What we know:
- The chain is of the alpha+beta class.
- The protein folds into 2 domains: about 5-105, Helix Hairpins, CATH 1.10.287; about 120-420, BirA Bifunctional Protein, domain 2.
- It contains 13 helices and 18 strands.
- It has helices at about 5-10, 10-20, 25, 30-65, 70-105, 140-145, 150-160, 170-185, 200-205, 230-235, 295-310, 360-365, 385-395; strands spanning about 120-125, 150, 165, 190-195, 200, 220, 225, 245, 250-260, 280-290, 315-320, 330-340, 345-355, 365-370, 375, 380-385, 405, 420.
- It has an 8-stranded mixed beta sheet. The protein has a 3-stranded antiparallel beta sheet with strand order 5-7-6.
- Helix 4 (about 30-65) packs antiparallel against helix 5 (about 70-105).
- It starts with a helix and ends with a strand.
- It binds one RNA strand through helix 4 and helix 5.
Amino acid sequence: MLDLKLIRSDPELVREGLRRRGAQAESALDRLLELDRQRREILVEVEERRGLRNVVSEQIAQFKRDKMDATAKIEAMRDVGDEIKRLEAGLKEVEALLEEELLQVPNLADPTAPEGGEEDSVVLHQWGTPREFAFSPLDHLDLAAPHDLIDMERGARTSGSRFAYLKGDLVFLQFALVQFALQKLASKGFRPVVVPVLVRDEAMYGTGFFPTDMQQVYRVEADGLNLVGTSEVPLAALHMDEILDEAELPLRYVGYSSCFRREAGAAGKDTRGIFRVHQFDKVEMFSFCAPDRSAEEHDFMRSIEEEVLQDLGLPYRAVNIAAGDLGASAAKKYDLEAWLPTQQRYREVTSCSNCTDYQARRLKVRGKGEKGGAYLLHTLNGTVVALGRTMIAIMENYQTEEGLIAAPLVLRPFLPAGMNTLGR
RNA sequence: GGAGGGGUGGCGGAGUCCGGUUGAACGCACCGGUCUUGAAAACCGGCAGGCCGCAAGGUCUCAUGGGUUCGAAUCCCAUCCCCUCCGCCA
């Protein structure tokens, strides 16, 4: 959510910011300004009358204490009370419209986010060299098949398309990655958390997934809960409505959870294997930090993501996502894309976003120091390891001519003793 | 799921029966000061947040949303959450 005061005081700045996000975002601005004007107009009237009521109520109380007759005053206030009620109803209506409008406006893009849309993201750098294969490499499904590591058919039978059973050594690989990631992050000051994956609407609105991405979310209607698409949601909501001591900042967490996405609108896209599925597990980092430190925290997160891919020996490139392609909450986003030999291109495996105060404003997460005065924090989130996609990258990049998969060295301490290759 | 009890400031905890100078006693924590070589103790002072406003100031908030009333932390209704007991259960 954007700051209404900023919208009011510098509409042109906001207009330009929204233009960079895409035209439809910009059109809301004039409606916002008008609703805000209306709100303040009514507010002044309501407050005037409430002030009067407070003063007279006080007098009535005094009269009663003095055992004097207050009937005349009470009589006079009856109309004022009704009028307040009427005005309050109008105010509520305008505020509801304003809120609805405001919830849909995305965050302003950071000046350093590239101009443009999906095609205009900028490659910052790349690391590693795609491996030259002396044989023709198999994709993850073909590699999995002889060892029965991924069972799409039965996944579909049980749950539908885009669901899978992961089996055997792949399960060991997944948990080795989790353990590797958690230990690395813990050593960097991120507190491990296993989060609730069913959350209330508040958490979805608070993180900016509602209302914009509602169609991507599995909803458990009977209980009014939602399955999260990332542990970013429960991690962000962890400090909802709190005022944090600024001495504790940045407050860093690393969450582990299953993630659920409906993938609405992705029909026909990435239909092979587990690259794009409705359910996957992910290790995610999250940080609450002081507003003037978030840019630096963002780069720190990206460096961690890069370190993970480097440790795993996966060639990748880092991309600065263009303004028009950012999620609703993000002001700036980096993606890391790992090389997939069978697709002969880099595909997104991790991503980290600086949401500035956008989520904090919705969730009411603030900081406060010795000097007093609460202020909104900045929130950042980043993937440490998206298990499915990372395992695809490992399988493809580490395959042998015999159709086996070598285990990355850094993971071996976390695999069953002696398991140096996967798939037997 | 059934029966009770409860949600007040950073924390603890009054106030709710009997509605009115209570945005909220008191204590702890924290910040500033006096004293001290320094610290502790003692003493003095400060210490919620939102909204409107250039400001002065006003207004709102005692889980949330409605209602009653001239006036609600206090009364009524609904919702959410927490605790205890019973039942069920990984």
